[in-house]
C-alpha cells in the first residue's frame, strides 16, 4: 500500500463536516484522581478488549478502504488522550498507525491537529507523518474520533539518548533547529489554532469576516490564511481551556488579538475552576487535590484575588514585539522526536495535538522540552498535605547536572534558531519576565495543583509583602514549616494595593 493512494489526495475527511458536538455529560468518566500526585488525570475507562477494538477498527476502515479488510492490526501504545494500533501487511510498502482519541475537546482537537500537520508539510521541511484519513466525529462503530496516518520510521530519542555519542547529540539538535527555524519564521497576527478553511464557520466567531489572502512571501504574516487560502486561524485548542471541567465553561476560545485578551480568559477559567471544586470522594470529578484546595479554600481564594489583581500591571492591553504569534510544537520531548537508531538522524516529529499559535515569548526561545528544565514541577499540594517535603533541592541538583549533559546541544540549537523577537530593550525584557511569570502560574500544573508555589513566586518578585516572603523562603529552604504556615501568613499580609509598585518588577507600562 502507499502506491495505491495517489499523491495529493490526503488527508481524507471520512466524517461529514458537521456542527461540533457539546462535550458529553459523562465526560467525567474519562478523568480520575491520579494515585500518586492526587490531581485529575485522563484515562480510558472500563475494560478494553483489544480483539473487539481491532474488529471495529477493521469495520471502520473497510468502509472507506477495502484494502484494510485483511490487514494485520495490533495494539501499539496508549497515550494521554489516545489509544494506538499498528496496521501492516506483507504486501504493503508502508505501515500505518490508527489512533483513537477520548472526547476531551470534541471535533476541534482532531480538526486542528490534522490542519496543523498539513500546514507544516506545506511550509517547512519538518518530517511529520502523512495523515491518510480521519474522522472528527464519533458517529462510527468505535464511538470515538480517529486518525489513520503513516507509521514513521525510527525510535524515540529517550531510548537512544544514553547510547548516543556527544557529537551525535549535538548533530540531531542542529538538524531539529533547522526545521524549527523555518517553523517559527512563520508569523501570525492572532492567537489560536489552524483549521482547514472548509470548517471556518465552525471555528471562527460568528461576527468574523475572513480577510483576503495576504501576499505569499517568506516574510508574510498569516501566510495562506484567508478566504481563498486553504487554512484559517480559529479558536484555540489548549489544555488551559479544556482541561477537566474547563471544557464546559462559557467564554471566548479565540482567536485572540492581544495577549491580554488571552490571559484574561485563562484567569477567568482558573477562577471558575477554583470555585467549582469536587472535594468529596466518590462524586464526579473528585480528586485529592480538590479536597486539599477545599480544606484551604479561604486562603486559596485570597491568594488568587491577589494574583488576579496583578494582571493589569503585568500584562498591558497593547501587544509588544514579544507578542507576535508563532506556531511552535511545545512538546518536542524525548517521546516525540524519532531518530534512526544507526545514524541518529531525525526521522520524524510526532504528536501535534493542541499545538497552537501563541505569543512568541511563550516559546521560551523555541527550546525543545528535552533541552529545557521547564518540565520540572515543584512538589504538588497533595504531597505537602501528606507530609512530603518540597523537592526543590533535587530539582536544583538535576538542573545543574543537565547543564553539563545538555549544554553543547543547547548552544548549537540556539545558535541556529536565533532570537524570536527583538528583546534588546530593557522594557521588553521586563515585559517578557512578567508575562512568562503570569503564564507559568496559569498553567494547570501550577496554581491549581501548587498554589503555595504561586505564593513563592509573588513573594520572590515582591508582588506581596515581606511577611509572606520570609515564610515562603523557609519552605524553599526546607525548614520544617507546613503549607498551613505558608497559607496562614497570607491571611496577615497587606494587600497588593499597599505595595510600592515602583520597587517591584511589575511596571510593564513604562
TrEMBL record:
One of its GO terms (molecular function) is kinase activity. It holds the Pfam family APH. Residues 489-510 have a biased composition (Polar residues). Residues 73-380 form the Aminoglycoside phosphotransferase domain. Residues 484-510 are annotated as: Disordered. Keywords: Kinase, Transferase. This is Kinase-like domain-containing protein.
